[in-house]
Amino acid sequence: MLMVAYDFRHIDAWVFDLDNTLYPPQMRLFDQIEVRMTDYVSRTLRIDRDHADHLRTTYWQKYGTTLAGLMAEHGVDPDPYLDHVHDIDFSPLQPDPQLAKNIAALPGRKIVYTNGSKPYAEQVLAARGLGGLFDQVYGVEHADYRPKPERAAFERVFEIDGLKPEAAAMFEDDPRNLSAPHQMGMRTVHVAPVAQHEPHIHYHTDDLAYFLSLLA
Ligand SMILES: [Mg+2]
Questions:
Q1: Is 171 within 8 Å of 17 (Cβ atoms)?
Q2: CA torsion, ordered 10, 121, 27, 82, to nearest 10 deg
Q3: What spacing in Å lies between the alpha carbon of 62 and ligand 1's midpoint?
């Protein structure tokens, strides 16, 4: 047995982030969302686009998502915001049969947990040929719009799911979102083109399908 497989032998639940994790950042889907976030911030707060773009990133850094900052500081209603920012063109996404096969081969429960909404996640999964592979899909709405990286958000979603963190693994492109999972006893895998060496990251991969093949 490979060392990496040995390290995951106790895992029976697999939690995947969505954006830039289940599709590579080179597909640039999130760029479209960022433009629409800036639009929404500009229109809702009646500020120019440069200022709105600055707030978008400031809130992302401070609160984990732009939405969480808009809710905390401006009382913005989350659902119209989520509908607006996720109304994008999904055609940059291509199906990935190898990734689908390797996810299907994992033993146990498979879950998607995104800071986007569940309806958006379902569209992304369909466009990637990953529809129907997951036992459950959770969005930011399932934790009352509290986002990752807040530990309370993870705890809420895992409580709804009945998932036991000490027997679960988390795959994520944003290193911040692996901190709480690590504290909770999960195996953490950073999925991104460039590795970051932080104590709360157990593994890094730039190729999720390949990494999963090592666990079979
Ligand atoms: Mg992501």
A1: yes
A2: -130
A3: 16
Q: Note the pLDDT of residue 100.
A: 98
pTM for the model stands at: 0.96
Ion ligand 1 residue ranges (Cβ < 5 Å) = 17, 19-20, 173
Class of domain 29-85: mainly alpha
pLDDT on residue 87: 96
Mean pLDDT, 10 residues at a time, the chain of 216 residues: 90 97 94 96 97 97 95 97 96 97 97 97 98 97 97 98 98 97 98 95 98 93
Q: Given the structure tokens 């697999």, which residue do they identify?
A: 14
Report the C-alpha gap between 70 and 78 in whole angstroms: 9
How high is the pLDDT of residue 11?
97
Reference 28, options 94, 92, 121, 100; nearest CA is: 92
Which of 125, 176, 167 has the alpha carbon at shortest distance from 148?
A: 176
**Per-domain residue ranges for the chain?**
2-24+93-213, 29-85
Q: Return the SS3 of 134.
A: coil
Tokens read off for 157: 């979603």
Q: Does domain 2-24+93-213 have CATH number 1.10.10.10?
A: no
Q: How far is the CA of 193 from the centre of ligand 1 (A)?
A: 13
